[in-house]
Amino acid sequence: MKELKGISASPGIAVGRAFLFSGDDEPAIPRYLINSAQVAGEWGRLETAVAFASAEVTKLRDRTATEMGEEQSKIFDAHIMMLNDPDLLDQIAARLKADLVNVEWIVHEVTRELVEKLGESKDEYLSERALDIRDVAKRLLNALLLRERRSLSGMEPGSILVAHDLLPSDAISLDRTKVVGIAMDVGGKTSHTAILARSFGIPAVLGLGEITRLAHDGEVIIADGFHGAVVIDPDPATAERYADTGKRLAGLQAELREASSLPSETTDGVSVVLNANIESPEEVESVLGYGAAGIGLYRSEFLFLKPGSLASEEMQFEAYRRVLVAMGDRPVTIRTLDVGGDKLIPDVTGGAEKNPLLGWRAIRFCLSRTEVFKTQLRALMRASAFGNLKIMFPMIACVEELDDALAILAEVKAELSATGISYRDDVPVGIMIEVPSAAMSADILARKSAFFSIGTNDLIQYTLAVDRGNEKTAYLYQPFHPGILRLVKLTIEGAHASGIPVAMCGELAGEPYATVVLLGLGLDEFSMTSSSLPVIRRVVRGVSMDDAKGFARLVLNMESYREIEPFVKHWMDEHFDIARFED
Ligand code: PEP
Ligand code: MG
Predict the structure, then answer these.
(1) Ligand 2 centroid distance, CA of 57 (Å)
(2) CATH 3.20.20.60: which residues of the chain?
(3) Is 192 a catalytic residue?
(4) 384-396 residue pLDDT tens
(5) Closest Cα partner for 96 from 38, 29, 28?
(6) What is the pLDDT of residues 195-221, one digit of tens each?
(7) Separation CA 489–CA 486 (nearest Å)
(8) pLDDT of 118-152, one tens digit each?
(9) Distance of alpha carbon 337 from alpha carbon 299, whole angstroms
(10) What is the CATH topology of the domain spanning 36-144?
(11) Does pLDDT of 23 surpass 70?
């Protein structure tokens, strides 16, 4: 038995068998010469691999069609066609005979040349197909090199995914019927893998350092997402202790959920909006089950991070419409594309940057790839006719970016009007406050925004200059730093001076220890992973606005997070016994 400590990234206790995943690295392609008598054998290997890869994609297509709709699954039809494309296969056959080299090398060369040719094309459609070819080539090479067992699709039910790191695109593709827990060497509480794990309700422990070295495939593992601990090969007494804790906490969660339909208002009758964050349309059912007032953040980029290329206008329209219709009158805030940083789309967001988190991300990407931005805005405006949509721009750093984004939206509306396509003209457009410069100029930005939503995950990262996903500097990632609390206060004051509401959709909004301080600072809306809604509702319903304001004043007078954090936690535990729900 071995015990490791990491960062608790998604609550819950999971027991399962380790599935070691080595990530999305390019496989090393062997190259060796063959003689002409071996050509037929190599061709046979290719045929087997094509059949295997096609069957794999077919399964993926069927699953996507069931879970996300026909439109989303079309990309996989295209992949099946590419795998069986006679021109491609002819080229491989010809090169195999002419070069007398092993077939995986030929596949690698032929597809690489094709990707290069397509990538250079001025035609946007063709250049985007390069990504599909890469995807298909990788799958085919994996099949040829017998790497298929290591692909996530090979996971058995009851698996604990053990990985060094996980790309958001891998995380969004996880089969929730098979993975019961996640344990990773790297990553922090607000990394996107952690956020997705919480959305999926999968317990996760990140930042474990060397879990991939210590755990073996198939070994029993306990992932304790409440305390950030992992036990490899537990002895019977330890396994029993964890099972008891898991049952007790699940009981408490059920008790909290019973209050889902009670109004979220303070003891003196101030109503507080409690919304949910989602990453994909299929989460809406759970959002409604938890009694959310609306969706405060739909991270639309996860549509783009699914295998395949840039989401088409139709595919986006369908996804947005589906969420809006399911939510009825409830507001749905859809954030425009926030790619770049740690959410890369190969061949689209470009190669590695020296400082990706300070680089070509979010609104910066959209303002320079206006065709991508306009496609999304068109899909959003068309979908607006089906519900209560709000649009939100991410990572605004200055008023110029907001002006430019609004101008592009106006162009899109004019184009839709000219073609007689209907949309709602009164869709509120707001911005995320995630960059310190935006918080400090909140009063200016508020004059041109319908609402603000504070993205604390990035605001803390950029204010304290600490990578949100790096476990080595996680100690400095401090929401209760006086600098952060002051920026939140400044944002709220700037917004309220112009009469606009302020939401928070970073992870801090779902942290029960922070709820009273945030209420006291004047926050109007909280948006979080839906499973956090019950405990936050309980806190809101147990405090008066006067007490919250007094508490926030006390906290704002303190000088360091070392002083503030224990003070807040002690006060909150005394009044709400938060520890009972987390421990
Ligand atoms: C944030 O930064 O707080 C936020 C909500 O956006 P994301 O986590 O997607 O960067
Ligand atoms: Mg952010």
Answers:
(1) 32
(2) 273-531
(3) yes
(4) 999 999 999 999 9
(5) 38
(6) 889 888 899 999 998 898 899 989 999
(7) 5
(8) 877 777 667 667 767 877 888 888 888 766 445 67
(9) 8
(10) Enzyme I; Chain A, domain 2 (1.10.274)
(11) no
Residue 116 scores a pLDDT above 80? yes
Q: Which of 536, 33, 563 is closest to 266 using CA atoms?
A: 536
Query: Residue with structure tokens 């996980």?
Result: 166
Confidence of residue 233 (pLDDT cuts 50, 70, 90): very high
Q: Which of 164, 192, 366, 481 is catalytic?
A: 192
Which residues line ligand 1 at a C-beta cut-off of 6 Å?
195, 297, 299, 338, 434, 455-458, 505-506
**Nearest ligand 1 atom, CA 457:** 3
User: How far from chain centre, in Å, is Cα 566?
Assistant: 30
Name which residue sits closest to atom 6 of ligand 1, judged by CA: 455
In angstroms, what is the span from residue 394 Cα to ligand 2's centroid?
A: 7
Residue 188 CA, ligand 1 centroid: distance in Å: 13
Q: Which residues pair with 453 in a beta bridge?
A: 432, 503
CATH topology for 2-22+150-234 is Glucose Oxidase; domain 1 (3.50.30)
**Which atom of ligand 1 sits closest to the CA of residue 299?**
9
pLDDT tens for 253-275 read 787 778 788 999 999 999 999 99
HSE of 404 in the Cβ direction (CA atoms, 13 Å)?
15
User: What is residue 392's predicted lDDT score, i.e. its pLDDT?
Assistant: 98
What are φ and ψ of residue 429, in 5° steps?
A: -120, 120
Ligand 1 mean position, distance from CA 436 (Å): 14
- Which atom of ligand 1 lies nearest, measured to the CA of 394? 6
Task: Considering every ligand atom shown, identify the ligand nearest to the alpha carbon of residue 297 and give its number.
Answer: 1
- State the span(s) of the chain assigned CATH 1.10.274.10: 36-144
Helix (H) or strand (E) holding 169: helix 168-172
End-to-end CA distance of the chain: 23
Identify the residue whose tokens are 């059949």: 51
DSSP state of 154: G
Residue 351 pLDDT level (bands cut at 50, 70, 90) = low
Q: Which atom of ligand 1 is nearest to the CA of 507?
A: 3
Report the chain's mean pLDDT, rounded to a whole number. 90
256 C-alpha to ligand 2 centroid (Å): 29
- The top-level CATH class assigned to 273-531 is alpha beta
**Residue located nearest, by CA, to atom 9 of ligand 1:** 299
What residue type is 580 in one-letter code? R
Among protein residues, the one whose CA lies closest to atom 4 of ligand 1: 455
For strands 2-5 and 229-232, give the pairing: antiparallel
Q: Which of 299, 466, 467 to mutate to test ligand 1, by most ligand atoms within 8 A of the CB atom?
A: 299
- Check residue 72 and give its pLDDT: 64
Write the pLDDT tens digit of every residue in 67-109.
666 766 777 788 889 999 999 999 999 999 999 999 999 999 9
pLDDT in tens, 488-533: 999 999 999 999 999 999 999 999 999 999 999 999 999 999 989 9
